[in-house]
């Protein structure tokens, strides 16, 4: 079977959630099928081949749209006129559209896979021609609604942005032959919001057990760790909530506790959080090595949808963790058995203090958490990926198509 994967994010190096997902979908599919990656990366930084995936053919069709003021305004106008979010519009360069048009007309592929929200626009171009699987890491309409409330609930710009995202998500989900989400909660959201998509299938995200092996020891101490790209609003919300509303309560009981934030971005957070107990490590060469000195992990997410890579990675290395209920979704982890769960600042702080103070509890959660990670390894999930794409290739294509 011949499979075309279209991604706006080039999957190497796999140092972000999107890159990680795309890389492992390509790896899973290339084990059984002839696979081509069409990279529409607007940065133009895509490689000619993906290290470790020699069987995946790469075609780069992205173009840098430019960042001048005039081009920014032009893209905003195009976003409103075409009903496509600006972030997705960046991957729809004239060159990419030309390549996709020729591929669609050639009929040489059995299925098209769109493994990220950013490439969803291509579902409309292939509708009626080739079966399309759209893999959604999150529910964009929910993310857009939360962003509007962050920036100004009644501000015309963010009201417009949310409307564009909601309409675009509805159209692309309906244009796809099959929509997959990362957890059952997101699947239910898509089914309820966008009638006509048909059943939504769940394929979880995973962890590479070789990249996140079990830690050699519990370091003890009172270092609390968080991992995430701080350019993402949901991660910003999480760090702010923990640093300002939870950490002071933890330090009332454990004055030497520190909060170590690992991940790129966050210049604005550094300005807003001046507490010396919060340490921004930035981008690190090896996250697993960085976690060796962390006594307890935290997933204090209070916004966003999808599944948190960071929780699965914490469980894989055996890092005992406190999470909100939202941070737990899609993992199958249980409160008291694999993690501790708390949703208000006081309860979250108590759980962190308990975890930092109880070595036996940390050891028990560490061992049981690794059983969850083993069920969510990419090797296990690869079977579901191949099966879903094989199934979608046999389904009838949508009978409508729309120009992008």
The count of DSSP E runs of length 2 or more, i.e. the number of strands, is 13
- Going by CATH, what is the homologous superfamily of the largest domain? Glycogen Phosphorylase B
Order of helices and strands: EHEEHHHEHEHHEHEEHEHEHEHEHEHHH
Give the averaged pLDDT, no decimals.
92
Beta fraction:
5-15%
First-residue to last-residue Cα separation: 27 Å
The outline comes out as globular
- CATH architecture annotation of the largest domain: 3-Layer(aba) Sandwich
Number of domains: 2
SSE order and pairing:
Elements: E1 2-7, H1 17-30, E2 34-39, E3 56-60, H2 69-82, H3 86-89, H4 94-106, E4 111-114, H5 122-126, E5 132-136, H6 140-151, H7 156-175, E6 178-181, H8 184-193, E7 201-202, E8 223-227, H9 233-253, E9 258-262, H10 267-272, E10 278-282, H11 287-290, E11 296-299, H12 309-317, E12 321-323, H13 325-328, E13 340-341, H14 345-357, H15 359-375, H16 378-393
Parallel strand pairs: 1-2, 1-4, 2-3, 4-5, 5-6, 6-7, 8-9, 8-11, 9-10, 11-12, 12-13
Polypeptide structure, described:
With 404 residues, the protein is an alpha/beta fold. It folds into two domains: 2-205 and 379-393, Glycogen Phosphorylase B (Rossmann fold); 223-376, Glycogen Phosphorylase B (Rossmann fold). Helices cover 45% and strands 14% of the residues. It has a seven-stranded parallel beta sheet with strand order 3-2-1-4-5-6-7, sandwiched between helices. A six-stranded parallel beta sheet has the order 10-9-8-11-12-13, sandwiched between helices. Helix 6 runs antiparallel to helix 7 (156-175) and helix 12 packs across helix 15. The longest helix is centred in the middle third of the chain and has 21 residues, at 233-253.
């Amino acid at each position: 079977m011949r499979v075309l994967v279209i991604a706006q994010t080039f999957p190497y190096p796999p140092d972000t959630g999107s890159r990680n997902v795309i890389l492992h979908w390509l790896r899973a599919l290339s084990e059984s099928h002839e696979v081509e990656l069409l990279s529409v990366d607007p940065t133009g930084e895509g490689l000619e081949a993906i290290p470790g995936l020699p069987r995946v053919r790469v075609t780069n069709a992205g173009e840098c749209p430019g960042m001048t003021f005039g081009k920014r305004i032009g893209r905003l106008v195009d976003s409103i006129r075409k009903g496509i979010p600006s972030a997705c519009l960046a991957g729809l360069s004239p060159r990419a559209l030309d390549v996709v048009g020729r591929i669609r007309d050639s009929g040489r592929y059995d299925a098209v896979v769109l493994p990220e929200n950013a490439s969803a626009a291509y579902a409309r171009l292939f509708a009626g021609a080739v079966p399309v699987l759209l893999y959604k890491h999150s529910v964009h309409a929910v993310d857009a609604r939360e962003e509007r409330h962050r920036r100004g609930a009644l501000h015309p710009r963010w009201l417009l942005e949310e409307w564009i995202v909601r309409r675009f998500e509805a159209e692309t989900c309906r244009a796809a032959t099959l929509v997959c989400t990362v957890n059952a909660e997101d699947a239910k959201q898509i089914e309820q919001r966008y009638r006509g998509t048909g059943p939504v299938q769940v394929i979880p995200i995973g962890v590479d057990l070789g990249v996140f092996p079990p830690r050699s020891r519990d370091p003890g101490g009172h270092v609390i760790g968080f991992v995430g790209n701080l350019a993402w609003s949901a991660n910003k919300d999480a760090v702010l909530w923990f640093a300002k509303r939870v950490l002071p309560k933890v330090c009332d009981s454990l004055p030497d506790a520190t909060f170590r934030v690992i991940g790129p971005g966050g210049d604005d957070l550094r300005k807003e959080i001046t507490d010396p107990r919060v340490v921004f490590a930035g981008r690190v060469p090896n996250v697993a090595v960085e976690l060796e000195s962390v006594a307890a992990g935290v997933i204090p997410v209070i916004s966003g949808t999808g599944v948190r890579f960071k929780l699965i990675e914490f469980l894989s290395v055996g890092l005992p963790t406190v999470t909100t209920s939202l941070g737990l979704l899609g993992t199958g982890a249980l409160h008291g058995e694999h993690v501790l769960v708390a949703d208000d600042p006081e309860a979250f702080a108590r759980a962190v203090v308990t975890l930092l103070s109880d070595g036996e509890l940390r050891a028990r959660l560490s061992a049981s958490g690794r059983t969850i990670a083993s069920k969510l390894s990419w090797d296990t999930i690869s079977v579901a990926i191949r099966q879903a794409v094989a199934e979608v290739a046999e389904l009838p294509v949508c009978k409508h198509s729309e120009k992008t």
